[in-house]
Predict the structure.
Amino acid sequence: MFACLHAPGNLPLLLECAAYFSPLIEEETSRDDVVFDVHGLNLIHGTPEKIAAEIHRRIGIPANIALAPNPDAALHAARGIPGITVILPGSEATTLAPLSLRLLGGSPELARTLDLWGLRTFGDFAALPPVGVAARLGDEGIRMQQLARGEANRQLRHRTDPLEFRETIEPDTPIDLIEPLLLLISVTLHRLCDRLRSNSLATNEISIVLILERAPEHPITLRFPVPMLDPMVFLKLLHLDLNNRPAPAPVEKIHIEMIPVQTRKLQHGLFLPAAPEPEKLEVTLARIRNLVGPANVGAPELLDTHRPDSFRTTALRMTPWQGIKQYSPQLVLRRFRPPRPVRVWCTDTGQPRKIISPIKEWRVVACAGPWRTSGDWWKGEPWHLDEWDVEVSDNSLFRIHQDHRQSRWCVEGSYD
Amino acid sequence: MTLSAVVPAARLTRPEPEVIESALGGIPRGALTEIAGLPSTGRTAFLYSLLATASSGEEFCALIDTENAFDPVSAAASGIRLSQLLWVRCNGNVEHAIKVADLLVQAGGFGLVAIDFGDTPPKVVQRIPLAAWFRLRQAIGNTKTVLVCVAQRIHARSCSALKIELTRDRILWRGRFPARLLEGTRITANCERSHRTQQTRLTIQAVSEPRQ
């Protein structure tokens, strides 16, 4: 069973009313009608007459309401018959017969032909023999006659809402404390998460913009390495962010938007090693960032350069590395950041002989080098170093370098 | 019952050098292991070998770098999968390092969490109250995480299930100047398990990274 509501110029109200009864609403056909599927509503409201009455009670404005076994019959009945019309199966042609042919639609040529034939109503056209109609009017004629008889059966072209997950909150009075602000945001986050869940989606980015009273807006962006859908985790991350970077003025308005992505798909295995739970890890990392600073947390990544100590930190990826296992034990360098400047005395052959720092003095016992590195001379920050491995008098092993551009010696780190 | 005996079957294994595995009896999970030694005694090489073993076993690791001394190039050369290593720099703040270790252990799921106090003066590390070490021991007790602490001395006392003290025997050089190369160091490890008097001596050779 399908229902059609007809009220000229009231499309938003009609859509709201239709959405109350059914999620299966036909995409917009005109500015005056809404067609939707009411299958199953008999279990709640009973007979089609009662369903129509319930729709009439809900809509609250003067509108034509029609229920019919197919969408087109319901549409024509709503357009042509005032008030409530219920067309039961088998009575479509009888009910639609008095309607004017102008409601049928179709091409202007067909309408002119039917007019020349002296046909004025659906009933007139429905009474013609189908074989003759097919011979004279072709496929369009057959289709139009089926519509006039109320026999045209088709699927609804469902209306789909654009997948936007954003909401705006306007509190009655500006909020200057974090707790009431979070309480307000919490409700919206839960609602947006429910919407995402009902669409089988998750989010990997939430952007929140706080419009402040007499101050520039305060944007907050929460990005996650994997899609998530836990409002309590989002709220905790937001709380940590606001604690770390509070809004400088009372909040007048809040815009929240979630970027929808496909949900995370994981293949669990009995023998897979344990990994941190992404939601729990994000909260932990946010706490650590608050403690030591955001720039000091991440996974190291080497840069494609020979410049010493070149790296950047990236987000920890939650996909375990899978590749060839290679293992080679190495004597490793512990870096001094920044390198410690020292004075170095050299022999006639250029080998370091003595290292003098502001706090200590070492005699060089053995050394190897120099290894000359240079680069980036084509950029703004060139380097040109001679590196030495040195064993000093207190049995320490250092890597020192002579910076030719700045004419100084530095201890780069110690081997350990 | 010692803490290491809570998860007796879970041991870190490594493809190479099995000699450490057999001599030390493995690094216990769900317990604190301390690696102590003066600078240039191979503590960091030892730690990186543990990180390489854990990360090549597809586990996630965390390194709490108190003095910002971690060198990603050396780590990659040692076999550590950098993409699976969470590196937290504390810029010399020992209190932050202990707090971060606590947070990471509570979060769970990491194969190995390492605290590096290697360049921090022992006097500063000694100021960490014993209660903080007990808290860490308690937090890690029911997990499968290996907690490793590298420092110049043993600090956690009875809170650590395994104590490894490293001393350097000699530095190995090859050739004569100007063709001399740093070949590596020879290290002796003294190991002591909690509640046992048994000590193990072990000689390890850490090889220098080839220079170009």
Residues 191 and 200 of chain B are 5 Å apart (CA to CA). Chain B touches chain A through 75 residues (CB under 8 Å). Chain B is about 25% helix and 30% strand.
